[in-house]
Amino acid sequence: MTVRPSIVPYINRYIAMSLEQQISKGIMEAMKAKDTARLSALRNAKKYIIEAKTAGPEIAELADADVLKIISKLAKQGADSAALFREKGREDLAAEELAQVAVYQEYLPKQLSVEELTAEVRAIIAEVGASSMKEMGKVMGVATKRLAGRADGKEVSAKVRELLA
Description:
8 helices
């Protein structure tokens, strides 16, 4: 099958859609499907993206890494809220929060398993040349950047401590 050269830029633009654009498209799809839980979650994410864009110098579009930070923060807050609601006996509110967290998880990269996290941290320790707990800061600096969105910071920190001890 051959593609007309005149439509190639449009195809490439659709394929190379940024995360912010994917969220905007998801909002439109949720509106059409009348999926209120999904719509609420995506509008909430879009609100935080717009706030981040207007907080500093004028930016046309946030980088995907920044959007990932926002979405992972929202997912973590939602999971924490759901745990609190369950603790207080409010299963209805916990279910709403978990539904939103599920939507956020769709936009986040796959989380690393324990084995994958251990392998990544070992590679970072070898790369940095760390051999003691005194060098934990160096390892964490590289690890937080490299594993952003793929692993929770507390898990990374615990694994670094474990491997350096």
